[in-house]
C-alpha cells in the first residue's frame, strides 16, 4: 500500500504544562491548536500506523491541549487520545503485523502522535480489533470513557453502599456508570444543570437526578443523602458544588475527584469532618488505575466491546466534525449537552 | 474514707455541638464554662473515682468546650479529658477495686465527668497506675498527646519516607513526635510562628524549622520539600498555611488533618493534583485510632510511661493554675507558646 508522505492534523501550540490553570471548557481552538501538515510517522517495532476513521474528543483531551492534564504536551505534534480506524502499517513484531487491515479502536497513550490527524501511531497492545457489530462512533469512544466507567464503578462496588453520587450526571461517562449501576441494583444520585436532562437519566437508571441550579437544590440534596447514605462521590466538577455535596455526605464519605470542570476554588467546608467523621478526599486517573490494575485492563476492554455490541451501551453523538471545519466548529459543538463530539480526519 | 457530697468544678455551658465553627483559640472562658459546685459522682461497676491532682488542658479540650469536637457536650457537667490523681473509690469489680489508693494517669473518655473538677470519674481501663519516677505534670499529660504522637508517627513510619512535615511545630505534641523521629533517624520538617522557637526544636531533632511568618517562607518551603521529598503532612492548623504546604508536596503526598487552629477557609489549591499526582487528604482522631487498633493501646501507654520516666520525654509547663483562678487566667496562659497549661482543682 502506498502511503502519502504528509498528512493533515490538528497540532499542539503549547509545550509542556500550562503555568496557570483555566476552566476545563474549550473556549476557543486558536490558543491551543492549529491545523497543519506534518510527515506521516513510521511505526516502531511494537507499534501500528492507523488510518483514522473517527477520533473522539474527550474532556481529558481538552485538559491535555490546555496543558492541564497529567502528561506534558509536545509542541507541533497532533493531539487526540483515542479513535477508531484501520491499521495500514506496522512494526516488525508479529502481533503488530497481525493487525494490518483490521479495524481497531485505539488509544495513542504516550506515542505523541494523536488521533486528531489522518494517521495516528499507537502501541499494538493499545489497539482493540473490533467486532463488526460495533459502530465506528462506539469504537472511537471505546477506551477512555468505558474503562474509566468500569474502574470507577469498581470503587463504588468495593465500598459496598448501594447509593453513590456523581456530578456531571449527563456526561457520556456518567451514563455508562448509571447503566452499570442499574444492572446490579445500585442507586446513582446524579447532579445535572438542566431540567430537561432529568427524565432520560432516570429512565437510564439514576435513582435521583438533582438540578444543581434549582433554588431548593441544597435542601433536596440533604434529604436525598439522608435517605440514601451514599459513601462514594465521583466528581468531575470540583468547586462550590462539589464542596457542598461532600459536606452533606455522611461519615466515612470518600470524595473521588476525576475532573475539574469548575475553576472556582475548591474548599473543604468542614475540615473537622476529616478528623471526626473519617472522611477522605482522593483522586482517580485512568493511567494510574491501569498501572495499578494491569490484569483488569483486558477483561474490562472485552466487557466494553460486548456492551457496545449488544446495545447495553451506546454512545450519544452530538456531532461528527470534518477536520477542515474543526477550528471553526469544535468549541460550539462541545458546549452542547449530553453527547460526544467526533472528528473525521 | 469520708467523701464530701459536693465538689468544685468547671462546668460546661453549651450543650451538644456548636452551630457555627469558631477558631480553636480559647478567646474567653465565660461563653463556654462556669465555676460551680456539683454533687460528687458515684462510680459505676467498672469505674473509679479519682481525687484530681492536676488536669491538663489540651487543644482537644478547647475544641470540646466550644462544641467543635467529635463528641457532644453535656450541659452542666465538668469538662476535661485527662489528668492525674489518686483513686479514692471504685465500682464493685475487682480491677477497679485494686486501683484504690493508687496514683493514676486517667482519661475521662465518655464518662461525662471530666478532670476539671475536684473529683473525676473514669473507666478503670482508662487509668494507668504510675511509676514513682513519673512527675505529676507528665502523668497529667500522659494519654492524649503521647498516644496521638505514637499513633501519628506510626503513620509516618509505615509510609516509609524519612522526611515528613508538621504544622504547629512547637506544640507539646509535635515535640513528642520530633523526639520519636530522632530516635530512628527520621527527618521532621516543622513550621512555627516565631524565630525564637527554631533553635530548641532543631536541638530536639527537627531537620528543618520554618517560620511561616517569614517573607521568604514559600520559597524556603519549596526548596526544603524538593530536597527532602516528604510524603506525610501532619496538620494541626488547616487554612492557607496548610493549603500551601500540601500544594508544594510531591506525588502521593498525604495531608493528615488532626486539628483546626486556623478558621480561615481550607482550599485545595490544585484539585488536579488529587487526580494526576495521586495525593490524598484524610484525618486523624485518637478515638478512631483506638477503636481501630485496640491492641496498640496498651503497648503505646507503656512506652509513653517509660519515656516520661527515663527523661526521653518531658512535658514543658507554661503554668499550673488553681481552679479558683481558672476563669480569669486560662485564656492568657493558653496563648503563651511552647508549653502546657494545667489546672489544680
Fold blueprint:
The structure is a homodimer of 345-residue chains.
Chain A (H helix, E strand, L loop, with lengths): L5 E7 L20 E7 L7 E11 L1 H7 L16 E9 L3 H5 L4 E5 L11 E5 L3 E3 L6 H4 L4 H16 L3 E4 L5 H12 L3 E6 L5 H7 L3 E4 L5 H12 L3 E4 L3 H10 L5 E4 L8 E3 L2 H6 L3 E4 L2 H7 L1 H17 L6 E6 L3 H10 L4 E5 L1
Parallel strand pairs in A: 8-9, 8-11, 9-10, 11-12, 12-14, 15-16
Antiparallel strand pairs in A: 1-2, 3-4, 3-6, 3-16, 4-5, 5-7
Can you give a write-up of this model?
2 copies of one chain form a homodimer. Chain A is α/β, with parallel strands linked by helices and 345 residues long. Helix content of chain A is 33%, strand content 25%. Chain A has helices spanning 59-65, 94-98, 136-139, 144-159, 172-183, 198-204, 217-228, 239-248, 271-276, 286-292, 294-310, 326-335; strands spanning 6-12, 33-39, 47-57, 82-90, 103-107, 119-123, 127-129, 163-166, 187-192, 208-211, 232-235, 254-257, 266-268, 280-283, 317-322, 340-344. In chain A, the strands form 3 sheets. In chain A, strands 3, 4, 5, 6, 7, 15 and 16 form a 7-stranded mixed beta sheet that branches. In chain A, helix 4 crosses helix 5 (172-183), helix 4 (144-159) crosses helix 11 and helix 10 (286-292) packs across helix 11. The longest helix of chain A has 17 residues, at 294-310. The two termini of chain A are 19 Å apart. The mean pLDDT of chain A is 93. Chain A binds chain B through residues 21, 68-70, 238, 257-260, 265-268, 270-285, 288, and chain B through 21, 68-70, 238, 257-260, 265-268, 270-285, 288.
Amino acid at each position: 500500500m502506498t502511503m502519502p508522505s504528509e498528512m493533515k492534523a490538528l497540532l499542539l501550540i503549547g509545550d509542556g504544562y500550562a503555568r496557570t490553570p483555566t476552566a476545563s471548557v474549550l473556549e476557543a481552538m486558536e490558543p491551543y491548536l492549529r491545523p497543519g501538515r506534518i510527515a506521516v510517522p513510521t511505526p516502531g517495532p511494537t507499534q501500528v500506523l492507523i488510518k483514522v476513521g473517527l477520533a473522539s474528543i474527550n474532556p481529558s483531551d481538552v485538559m491535555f491541549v490546555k496543558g492541564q492534564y497529567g502528561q506534558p504536551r509536545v509542541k507541533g505534534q497532533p493531539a487526540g487520545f483515542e479513535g477508531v480506524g484501520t491499521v495500514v502499517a506496522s512494526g516488525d513484531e508479529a502481533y503488530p503485523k497481525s493487525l494490518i487491515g483490521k479495524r481497531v479502536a485505539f488509544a495513542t497513550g504516550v506515542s505523541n502522535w494523536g488521533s486528531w490527524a489522518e494517521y495516528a501511531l499507537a502501541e499494538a497492545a493499545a489497539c482493540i480489533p473490533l467486532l463488526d457489530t460495533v459502530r465506528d462512533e462506539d469504537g472511537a469512544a471505546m477506551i477512555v470513557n468505558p474503562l474509566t466507567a468500569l474502574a470507577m464503578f469498581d470503587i463504588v462496588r468495593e465500598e459496598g453502599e448501594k447509593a453513590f453520587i456523581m456530578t456531571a450526571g449527563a456526561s457520556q461517562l456518567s451514563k455508562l456508570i448509571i447503566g452499570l449501576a442499574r444492572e446490579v441494583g445500585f442507586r446513582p444520585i446524579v447532579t445535572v444543570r438542566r431540567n430537561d436532562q432529568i427524565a432520560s437519566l432516570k429512565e437510564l437508571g439514576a435513582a435521583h437526578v438533582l438540578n444543581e441550579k434549582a433554588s431548593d437544590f441544597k435542601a433536596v440534596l440533604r434529604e436525598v443523602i439522608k435517605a440514601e447514605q451514599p459513601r462514594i462521590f465521583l466528581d468531575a466538577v470540583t468547586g462550590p458544588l462539589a464542596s457542598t455535596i461532600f459536606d452533606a455526605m455522611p461519615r466515612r464519605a470518600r470524595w473521588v475527584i476525576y475532573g475539574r470542570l469548575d475553576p472556582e476554588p475548591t474548599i473543604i467546608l468542614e475540615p473537622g469532618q476529616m478528623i471526626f467523621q473519617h472522611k477522605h478526599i482522593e483522586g482517580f486517573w485512568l493511567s494510574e488505575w491501569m498501572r495499578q490494575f494491569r490484569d483488569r485492563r483486558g477483561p474490562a476492554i472485552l466487557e466494553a466491546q460486548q456492551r457496545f455490541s449488544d446495545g447495553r451501551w451506546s454512545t450519544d453523538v452530538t456531532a461528527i466534525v470534518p477536520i477542515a471545519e474543526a477550528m471553526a466548529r469544535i468549541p460550539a459543538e462541545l458546549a452542547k449537552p449530553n453527547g460526544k463530539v467526533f472528528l473525521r480526519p
